[in-house]
Amino acid sequence: MFHLQKATQVTSAESDQKGDDTLLGLAEHYRYPPRPAEGPGAAAPFVRANMVSSIDGAATHDGKSGGLGGDGDKTVFRVLRGLADVILVGAGTAITEGYRRPQPDTAFAGLREENGQAPAPALALVSRSLSIPLDYPPLAHPETVVLTCASAPADRRAALVDAGATLIDCGDDNVETSKLIETCGDRGRPRVLCEGGPSLLGSIIADDLLDELCLTTSPHLVGGRAGRIATHAADDSDDGALALKGMTPAAIITDDDGYLFMRWLRHGRSSIH
Ligand SMILES: NC(=O)c1ccc[n+]([C@@H]2O[C@H](COP(=O)([O-])OP(=O)(O)OC[C@H]3O[C@@H](n4cnc5c(N)ncnc54)[C@H](OP(=O)(O)O)[C@@H]3O)[C@@H](O)[C@H]2O)c1
Question: Can you give the residue ranges of the Bacterial bifunctional deaminase-reductase C-terminal domain (predicted)?
Answer without folding.
Answer: 45-234
